[in-house]
């Protein structure tokens, strides 16, 4: 029996404490100390994850600009983190201390209405501010719903400490709303971009708001120990707003628990790390499906067989998993893909039959949560077997993982909600590796055997230790890193080779144009014509490749061509002969230097210059035997190596060899080609029964051609933009999805569940 002194310390809901009194002040200090200590730990823990999150996003950024935004954000956070933390904690402390007085000052009396501390005022604001407000509103609403019980008790007990002021979720100084708004105010210390701030808000939700349970429980425990409302019942208001009576409190709690449990198959557990709108949509669709006249979800009649427990499900799945491991030797083929599709759809029935053999009686159904989990995993693997992003052989291999993944989803309900869940990352990584697989690019079977070994080990070794997914994910990543480094070297060689050929072709065209434009219209002797169109044109190509088209060497080479042509003009006057004699030493020097660079032997150069001396002596009017002159002017057997051939004989020939410049058409395929980025994977039909998968490696800045390589970095094909657009239009090429497998599967499942109930097959 309590003594009088003890009972006098108990404060009922109808009593009020003066916050300025000794006891009220002590209790307020207790709450402030608990909040300060807990929130400091949580906010420190959150900022420890910001660097990693921003670095991961920078690595996956779609372009350099986006990457720099994340790196700038990292630097800004490192510099301003202490100020943000101090501002956040100081604001919470002030609100706890000043709440009562500021509330009265704002309202004029305790019954007035004021803007709640944590409310979000939506008005005409900038897009960035609106985006920020929506993000904060979303996480406040989610956490207020999740923390209903503990938050209700804290509200009631703080009302007593604050002199009877009515406190609700929105006005609680340590509620999700007040904490979120305080953090928003503190975030003004950062000058980072909004995309960076939104990432930090998500981390605040994940690491601070998600851990408020312990804060509220400690506050409630301390206030109960101090005698503040020790007998308080956690009454939850009705949907319409009216509170339940004392006799209705327990059923309300049960209903809330059931509602929360109903959502846990998608990871909406007490961790607070709930998922995006997509997951919320899935939850709603599964709930709607259960209430529809078709499908599962019927209530069991009285006296029916007891629903299987999670342990029974895991045990039965382990038996089925062992059987699947034994059958893993089946070859990957299209026929087996069809067979596997049937197995995927029948797993629930097989599972119930296995539970029946283990317990002696077959249950007719499983619990709502487990049924939704089984159906969701089943739909995931049905999607895998229909996913054209994966080659058939890879579909068959990955589809064998249905049972291990169902076990994982039952053991850890967060699998579908968390993008970074190890099991989810492993399946996404396997699908990403498999996307680039083809028999041609994997002749040594290295990739096929690695994926098969991971599937085998999950089937054989996975019992209930979820760390196996993390280990296999790291192993696959290491394999991929080694393969990628090998491929990058080969890919670089292919790109350099292609770039070199294009530069050579471009140089040849430029050299040909320069020579042809100069000799056109001139009736040059065969010797002069042959030197310019063959030997000197090749020297121009070499000069362009080595020194460039803007170099002084290239300008000198063109000047020589002009002088060489001018030297063929008749020298009839004394001045003309004097000018020709002055040119000849320079012509000889230039020829010796230039021809020596294009594989001329010294003996060939001497023979050629000897013929030129004969020609120029005749030009200067010296006595030269007629036979020698005729041999020079008419000879087609020039002292030029056969390997040095003309680049082009005429302007018409040069024009005909130019690549066709197709007009850019405004077709969906042409627009798609224009948007392709290096790293995008495509599938090409390379023969009647052969398909090759290749990655866009490089787009030529000179010709605009698209170079594709396989997963080993070897060239598969290169296309002009219009050729690639035609291949896409004809179906001989197809762009593969870059979105992760899990995300695409969840989108597809939402689409399927959103269809009218009559169009969906009843659940087995």
From TrEMBL:
Keywords: Coiled coil
Coiled coil among keywords: yes
Pfam family name, one: DUF1631
Annotated Polar residues bias: 1-18
Region (Disordered): 1-22
Presence of keyword Coiled coil: yes
InterPro entries listed in its UniProt record: DUF1631
Stated name of the protein: Thymidine phosphorylase
Native source organism of the sequence: Dyella japonica
